[in-house]
Amino acid sequence: MTAQNIPEGFRLYQAPDRFPEKIGPLYFKRDGDHYDFGFLVTRQHTNANKILHGGMMMAFADEMMGHKVFRAVGKKPCATISLNFDFVAAAREGDWVQMKSSITRQGLSVVFVRSELYVEDNIILTADGIWKIFGR
Question: Which residue in 21, 71, 90, 98 has a CA-CA distance of 20 to 30 Å to 14?
Answer without folding.
Answer: 90
